Amino acid sequence: MFDAILIEKTEGASRAILTGLDEARLPAGDVTVRVAYSTLNYKDALAITGQAPVVRHFPMVPGIDFAGTVEHSDNPAYAAGDQVVLNGWGVGETHWGGLAGKARVKGDWLVPLQAPFTPRQAMAIGTAGYTAMLCVMALERHGVAPGQGEVLVTGAAGGVGSVAVALLAKLGHQVVAMTGRPEEAPFLRALGAAEVIDRAGYAEPGKPLARERWAGAVDVVGGQVLANICAAMRYRGTVAACGLAGGMALPATVAPFILRGVTLAGVDSVMCPREDRLDAWRRLARDLDIARLEALSTEIPLSGAIGAAERLLAGRVRGRIVIPLDPGAP
Ligand code: NDP
Predict the structure, then answer these.
(1) Ligand 1 binding pocket, CB closer than 6 Å
(2) Strand 233-241 to strand 263-266: parallel, antiparallel, or no bridges (unpaired)?
(3) What sign has the CA pseudo-torsion 64, 271, 279, 78?
(4) Residue 256 has pLDDT above 90, yes or no
């Protein structure tokens, strides 16, 4: 038996509980992993609270990511004892996920734990941090380089945002952090932000074209904020858009794209091809300051995950949450 969060659906409503599960109940897969750490991402919070239809069938163990040790493998790429990481692929949505002591998955979904990270550090990064790296790589692909001008990060005090600030600052960018929590300014400056601005300035409908300011941007918010960012991009600037914390809509005009050559680069972590994942994890090992990673993560027990999900969706969680599943793991 091992501890798990399980989401059940009764009388049309979903409900998350902390429970014990038997290994025999794990879904089909060719690799069984003893989970060392998981984490709480935005999507996990949506699944646990039932605020969006993330879970595709019930009962479901949530948790879109985990790090742990292979216990049993029928996949030639992995053997018992290997340390592995999983991000996405529908795990925690269509296939039982990481908020449990064990997981059984397709070996093709796993990547080896990237040195020098411990399982705990890999989950302090988690899917949020790996997505932040994919966003940085998207900016680079479109020619955004240090020295070209200010790079904006939205939702900066959250998971994706805080890792993006730390990464971009270490790479030498002049990072401006946008937040709805001005009280987090010291935290954001400690991560490397040169300036912290209030989201309120971007929340109202603006002009199709605003004063050119941003050479690049990482946006987790979407909605009106993203539309206003597009309008304020510098000539040929790029916005990497990965989130919808502020809304799914995009009330923008084509003006920034056709008059300033702005690029809106979409970033998806879930179905991201394996080679790009491996690249992102290698880049995280090179470009993320481990001391800053420690500063932006908080550990909570599995029993706290359900309550933390509410706080995360209310925008009250700072940085990243890690959840230990195996008391002996590093
Ligand atoms: P967090 O909850 O950790 O952070 C989200 C941040 O967004 C909050 O901290 C807050 O920033 C800001 N925010 C929250 N609510 C609102 C709101 N109503 N309006 C504007 N801003 C708001 O989540 P994550 O960082 O883990 O994820 C952020 C987004 O990225 C989510 O939408 C998530 O679904 C998406 N995502 C997408 C992925 C992909 O593959 N495309 C992968 C991972 C995440 P602050 O406190 O600074 O104001």
Answers:
(1) 41-43, 127-128, 131, 155-161, 179-181, 199, 220-221, 242-246, 267-270, 312, 315, 317
(2) parallel
(3) positive
(4) yes
The SS3 of residue 250 is: coil
pLDDT tens across 34-83, in order? Answer: 999 999 999 999 999 999 999 999 999 999 999 999 999 999 999 999 99
Query: Average pLDDT, whole number, for the chain?
Result: 97
pLDDT the model gives residue 108: 97
Q: Where are the beta strands (DSSP E) in the chain?
A: 2-10, 13-21, 31-39, 65-73, 83-87, 102-105, 110-112, 150-153, 174-179, 195-198, 214-219, 233-241, 263-266, 297-299, 320-324
Whose Cα sits closest to atom 20 in ligand 1?
Answer: 246
CB of 298 within 8 A of CB of 272?
no
Rounded Cα distance between 297 and 43, Å, is 17
Domains of the chain: 2-113+300-324 (3.90.180.10), 126-266 (3.40.50.720)
Closest to 153 in 3D by CA, of 124, 189, 206: 189
Q: How many A from CA of 245 to the centre of ligand 1?
A: 4
Closest-lying ligand 1 atom to the alpha carbon of residue 225:
20
222 CA to centre of ligand 1 in angstroms: 9
DSSP 3-state assignment of 83?
strand
CA-based nearest residue to 294, from 317, 315, 319, 316: 319
Composition of the chain by helix, strand, coil, percent to 5: 35, 30, 40
- Which of 39, 40, 42, 218 has the most ligand 1 atoms within 8 A of CB, as the residue to mutate? 42
| Residue pLDDT, tens place only, 153-194 | 999 999 999 999 999 999 999 999 999 999 999 999 999 999
Q: How far apart are alpha carbons 105 and 75 in whole angstroms?
A: 10
Q: Of all atoms in ligand 1, which is nearest to the CA of residue 242?
A: 41
Consecutive H or E run containing 138: helix 119-141
